[in-house]
Design a protein that fits this description.
234 residues; alpha/beta; Rossmann fold; 2 domains; 10 helices; 53% helix; 12% strand; elongated; hydrolase
Length: 234
């Protein structure tokens, strides 16, 4: 799973620590559709937003640039043939505020019920942080959502793409996390679910990546790293 010990652990967030609340995206889609004043069929808008979200993620992986909500909504407007001038700076700020309110009403859920406790136990023996491409939900909101999930307190480093101006797999976003830990990149294990953004990106940045999936869970990886740290300290 992980060769050798670690001096710090970096984690992806989505599908590594948490998944979306099952009702959030439907309500968020309708919030954005009506907020933009579009008369598009809700199902058509949802499909356009999903495609834009996926395309923006691929653009981030290819360029290392952060593509936030404004970029993603721009892609939606292009797809629907709607003018971009409907998305003013004031409207964007309003939509971000409303999305944050909605997300706090329907916060993400830990990937497994015991993960917050495993994260807290790991943080007692190793510094733990997150390195996250924020996408549609900015870092300011993610802090509040992690807190709502019981996962903020154990984190000593929080690196969000919209705040550092770089997105995974770019080395710069991983370098910000390493700087926060104040140790060598090779001493940091990065855990994530994306083979490109998390595994290739962390490896290129000199970190030690671990890919999590259904067979290798985040809880199992953290428990193994914490146990190794305890053995080393004994």
């Amino acid at each position: 799973m992980v060769d050798g010990g670690a001096r710090a652990v970096s984690l992806d967030i989505w599908l590594t620590l948490v998944r979306s609340h099952p009702e959030f995206k439907g309500h968020r889609n309708e919030l954005l559709r009506t907020g933009l004043g579009l008369r598009t069929d809700p199902a058509e808008f949802a499909a356009a937003l999903r495609a834009a979200d996926q395309r923006a993620d691929l653009l981030s992986e290819a360029s290392g640039r952060d593509h936030a909500l404004a970029d993603r909504l721009g892609l939606v407007l292009d797809d629907l043939g709607a003018p971009h001038d409907v998305l003013s700076a004031d409207l964007l700020a309003h939509l971000l505020d409303r999305q944050e309110e909605l997300a706090l009403e329907m916060p993400p859920q830990p990937l497994d019920p015991g993960l917050p406790d495993v994260l807290a136990a790991t943080a007692q023996v190793l510094p733990v942080g997150v390195t996250s491409n924020t996408g549609m939900i900015p870092g300011r909101t993610m802090r509040r959502l992690l807190d709502a999930c019981g996962m903020l307190a154990p984190l000593s480093v929080l690196t969000f793409s919209d705040e550092v101006g770089a997105a995974k797999p770019a080395p710069a976003i991983f370098a910000a996390t390493v700087e926060g830990f104040a140790c060598a990149a090779g001493d940091v294990v990065h855990v994530g679910d994306n083979p490109v953004a998390d595994v290739a990106g962390a490896r290129d940045a000199g970190m030690r990546p671990v890919l999590v999936d259904a067979s290798v869970t985040t809880s199992a990886v953290l428990a193994a790293l914490a146990e190794r740290a305890r053995e080393t300290a004994a």
